[in-house]
Specification:
- The structure is a homotetramer.
- With about 200 residues, chain A is an all-alpha fold.
- Chain A folds into two domains: about 50 residues, Orthogonal Bundle (Arc Repressor Mutant, subunit A), CATH 1.10.10; about 120 residues, Tetracycline Repressor, domain 2 (Orthogonal Bundle).
- In chain A, about 70% of the residues lie in helices and about 0% in strands.
- In chain A, helix 1 packs across helix 2, helix 5 runs parallel beside helix 8 and helix 6 runs antiparallel to helix 8.
- The longest helix of chain A has 25 residues.
- Chain A is elongated.
- The N and C termini of chain A lie far apart (about 50 Å).
- At the A-B interface, helix 8 and helix 9 of A face helix 8 and helix 9 of B.
- The structure holds a DNA duplex (21 and 21 nucleotides).
Amino acid sequence: MTRSLRSDAQRNRLRILEAAEVVFAMKGPSASTEEIAQRAGVGIGTLFRHFPTKKALLQAILKELAVRIATETEELVRSGEPASAFYEFFSRMVGQATKQKTVVGLLAEAGIAVSVAKPVNALRDAVEALLAGAQRAGKVRQDVGVAEVLALLTGVCQASMHADWSEELQDRTLAVVFDGLRPNPASDGGPSLLRSRSA
Amino acid sequence: MTRSLRSDAQRNRLRILEAAEVVFAMKGPSASTEEIAQRAGVGIGTLFRHFPTKKALLQAILKELAVRIATETEELVRSGEPASAFYEFFSRMVGQATKQKTVVGLLAEAGIAVSVAKPVNALRDAVEALLAGAQRAGKVRQDVGVAEVLALLTGVCQASMHADWSEELQDRTLAVVFDGLRPNPASDGGPSLLRSRSA
Amino acid sequence: MTRSLRSDAQRNRLRILEAAEVVFAMKGPSASTEEIAQRAGVGIGTLFRHFPTKKALLQAILKELAVRIATETEELVRSGEPASAFYEFFSRMVGQATKQKTVVGLLAEAGIAVSVAKPVNALRDAVEALLAGAQRAGKVRQDVGVAEVLALLTGVCQASMHADWSEELQDRTLAVVFDGLRPNPASDGGPSLLRSRSA
Amino acid sequence: MTRSLRSDAQRNRLRILEAAEVVFAMKGPSASTEEIAQRAGVGIGTLFRHFPTKKALLQAILKELAVRIATETEELVRSGEPASAFYEFFSRMVGQATKQKTVVGLLAEAGIAVSVAKPVNALRDAVEALLAGAQRAGKVRQDVGVAEVLALLTGVCQASMHADWSEELQDRTLAVVFDGLRPNPASDGGPSLLRSRSA
DNA sequence: TATGAATGAGCATTCATTCAT
DNA sequence: GATGAATGAATGCTCATTCAT
């Protein structure tokens, strides 16, 4: 098999991914393939050679994004600050979602128990590690699981994309969620009356 | 083809609204008018006679929904159980959203400070009353405002529409949010360190 | 046969015709039937009961118009001023066309050798009489026929409906046509070299 | 289905233009884009790729036509026969209009003082040159301007599209107009009583 | 392999005409 | 006879996807 053109192909693939990231980020998944191809400086045919459907391209973007975020998250895990790391991550994610419409899609997918895409699972694992660390540090309740963390994260991110969202509202919303996640100082260690199931 | 004229145009109007509710619920606002008309058992022309624009139809759905929900909510307000009413409402809403994508749109619109549509404002007011009652009863923190309540509600509803959502996950997610909303038993009465502004 | 409602029907017919005249005059034949019915204060069904097709309504309008104009024209014929009457009629028609888009359609139909509609034929006859009078008075060439008169009239009327038309342009255009219609003072009585056919 | 790509997109463009010319000629500007695409043997998408709007297509037709006619007209100007050239042009134009409804639209646009489209202005200029030549040669009155020439031309062309038009009628109509344009042999050199303004 | 022209199903919307009341 | 709600074919236009070059 001739491999001479492969490097070109690789470069194109990257260009398309970069363009798609930007465009999907700005306009969401309804952005047109044509616009992406244009921004990538590539013919529409090339785009479809690399990604057989629009959906496939979107998934690839999500994978890319998952890898990047998972990496960042793992760094946070390794940072040795389990107490703040988890909350830091949560805030950061919400902050990003405002401008990166794709983040929401990714988080939603990460919320699925087992994703088809490996990087998404990696992200989920990283979040789980973050959560576990915070729990060990006594900063997050024991009886909270990744599932609801991701659900809450997804939800707040989605909410953050609506008309009236402001930094202030974001702070106030996160304050409530964070308070719900923190161990109740009065009854630390024991589950609340409402919740008795473990993750 | 089903027939119904004159005063029974109202019946068709209702059928269209019902169909639109279902279809929009399933497919979101990008659902096609044609499909709605079909489901309503009505010609496409009839649909457009009743609602001059797809947007108008969507708004009408939201209005209908807003009226229905606002009414329910006001009943809760009057129920004389301010303690549980607020949380009841919140749960109910999330429960509905799972099957009614439109609820999310409505809540999102309700989140906007002043909506163009009267019923939406009515809903917002009802929620505000519910919240105030719960706060007076000491069941919700004083420093929480409608804005973040609606944001949280919208967020959880949106999250609830994703693949892996289950009753269990819903309960666990709501538990976190509710805990975040409840006054901290240890420091009841005084604002937390994080938040000092009142709604 | 009961005839009690006939008078109502007649009144409706008239109302529709009046409305149609106005609306077609303003917007031309592409005006919508709905608008006409509305202006007539009549249901769309009533309109179609009286005129089975939009085309039929338009034709009826043309007939109405033909009757009116034919009457006016016959009056001009009887006015005893054959010299000026013909040119007066021509100018008047062009003046009207600017605001009555239907006039053009009528003149076009009048140009057809034998119309299906009697009133249109009557109009044609009246114009012919006008022309004959002017020719007898020596104010219009002998070798000019109704056909070309109507063609010219239609043409100028149609031209008058375009963007840049002004009173000045109208005068200048009519001046040329009228000069072409007048007998050549130098060679009066004999046909020009170019034209030898008689009407 | 016929295929032709890349540089041969030009061929498709031409085919669409040709089809549009024919279809618009037959049915006027209300002809459907679908029919044009069909006649061109091209998908509707292709049509819209070449002309983003129906209006744009129509304008392109007019431009094409304007260029073609302007070229022909300039040739007539250069032919060195100013006497006959002007009348030749006028007759030719009317002859074409019978089968090309678009010619009328073009002439109408040319009648507007300054068109948006360059080719239309070029046509107008060419007609002006033709007229000036004929006037210098003493074959057309000095006090006639392009405006009324184009109005007359437009008018006769429009009239020529109606049911009963025949070659004979065309000759007779043009004879009148041409006579109106020619200097009055009896008063050659001086303006007529009716008109005193010069073009 | 890259290109971008071609494709056509799909969409929202309009309007002359029909028909149950 | 009058009404106006219902109808659906038709229109201009978009966009993901295919395929000849």
